[in-house]
Amino acid sequence: MAQRVSADRPLRLVVFDCDGTLVDSQGIIVRTMERVFDAAGLPRPDANAVRRVVGLSLPEAIAHLLPDLDAPDHHELAGHYKRAFADMRAAGGDADESLYPGIAALLAALDDAGYLMGVATGKSSRGLALTLDRYGLARYFITLQTADLHPSKPHPAMLRTAIAEAGAEPEQTVLIGDTRYDMAMARSAGAHGLGVTWGYHPGDELIEAGARGLADRAADVPALVAGLID
């Protein structure tokens, strides 16, 4: 990764969410959740309800879907989900996740402009590594923060850690994500939240949660980022 940081300006950090922001993973997430609920003898969750919890850690997401169950049940189902997800991912096909249009070019443009970059995601470390390796994106990121290392979004721990690892400051950091959990996390960490409208929560919710702007296309992101921290 190129790191052309001028000595007379502060470090500028751009942190991305993954699911719903870098990759469209709703297909495999919904199918995996359906498989887990089927195996447990539970009624299948509504697909839109599943999309609404993407970005949370697994136990937290399942707690939202099954609020009447206890925490040990949520964690047990989360374990089943991880195994089912790995099986479905290995199978590939139309259940797999895909890179959103323009993301590869966006990361290259931000890198060329001298921004530091990271990821803060509800994925596990292993899941994130597989996604980044699949699309050759790992080289762009200097900090990777995942759900198995931190409390679930919107808790600010993973973003605060990303900022600290990069040596940046919150006011020079933009968190790019598609859910209100991302925007709330950015606000709690003192960073700027930039919403993307190609993911799983509508733009008006992102603005309500604290987004400083909305990008409708990956190509829109560099100018919006520059407007916030340049």
UniProtKB/TrEMBL annotation:
Gene3D superfamilies in UniProt: HAD superfamily/HAD-like (3.40.50.1000), Putative phosphatase, domain 2 (1.10.150.240)
GO biological process: DNA repair
Alphabetical list of Pfam families matching this protein: HAD_2 (PF13419)
InterPro entries: HAD-like_hydrolase_sf, HAD-like_sf, HAD-SF_hydro_IA, HAD_2, HAD_sf, PGP-like_dom2
A Gene Ontology cellular-component term: cytosol
UniProt GO MF annotations: phosphoglycolate phosphatase activity
Protein name, as recorded: Phosphoglycolate phosphatase
Native source organism of the sequence: Rhodothalassium salexigens DSM 2132
Lineage: Bacteria, Pseudomonadati, Pseudomonadota, Alphaproteobacteria, Rhodothalassiales
